[in-house]
UniProtKB/TrEMBL annotation:
It comes from Flagellimonas meridianipacifica. The chain crosses the membrane at residues 20-36, 43-65, 71-92, 104-126, 146-165, 172-189. Pfam families: HupE_UreJ_2. This is HupE/UreJ protein. Keywords: Membrane, Transmembrane, Transmembrane helix. The keyword Transmembrane helix applies.
């Protein structure tokens, strides 16, 4: 197997693995406020998240920047909790276009944090490789493809509830964001700072 294909497959499997549910949960809560008709906004949002974690992944892999994984294990559920809270107490982005810009910045910034978690896994894989360009490109594209698959599934479920069953959008958002906030809060409270 070509190295690019190898890393592409690893990136895809890493994001779509249910054992790493925290990244999937972040994508779920990130998309909770959007309808299928806003698919362009969703793609831009997910791409902003990908850009954020790609930059961090590159910096950590080249030993330019690092944060202990123990801190990252706390920060990731914190990003989920903050996003969920923002979904519920914020203004609907369809009513306030400026909020879309804030959502993109938030997704980009939280992508930096999630990229630090990806980087520990990725860095262990490339030990001994002289160039990280092909592994980095393959792994990031694999993660993006995995994320798009997860988002497609999330938006499909939302479409079913909102358009077929007739759930109100506000109720859907509060339910999904509340569940994500609860799960992330439990993870944060279980974190040991010592």
């Amino acid at each position: 197997m070509h190295p690019f294909e190898f890393y592409l497959k690893l990136g895809f499997e890493h994001i779509s693995n249910l054992a790493g549910y925290d990244h999937i949960l972040f994508l779920v809560v990130l998309c909770a406020i959007y309808r299928i008709q806003q698919w362009k906004n969703i793609l831009i949002l997910v791409t902003a998240f990908t850009i954020g974690h790609s930059v961090t992944l590159a910096l950590v892999s080249m030993d330019i920047f690092t944060i202990p994984s123990s801190i990252i294990k706390f920060l990731i559920p914190a990003t989920i909790f903050i996003t969920a809270l923002h979904n519920v107490i914020g203004v609907n982005p369809t009513l306030e276009p400026k909020r879309m810009g804030r959502n993109y910045v938030m997704a980009l910034f939280f992508g930096f944090i999630h990229g630090m978690d990806f980087s520990n896994y990725f860095k262990a894989l490339i030990m001994g490789d002289s160039s990280i360009l092909v592994p980095l490109l393959g792994f990031n594209i694999g993660i993006e493809l995995g994320q798009l698959l997860v988002v497609f599934f999330i938006v499909g479920i939302a479409f079913l509830f909102l358009n077929v069953i007739g759930t109100k959008h506000r109720d859907w958002n509060v339910f999904i964001s509340g569940a994500a906030a609860g799960m992330s809060l439990i993870s944060m409270l279980e974190y040991k700072f010592w």
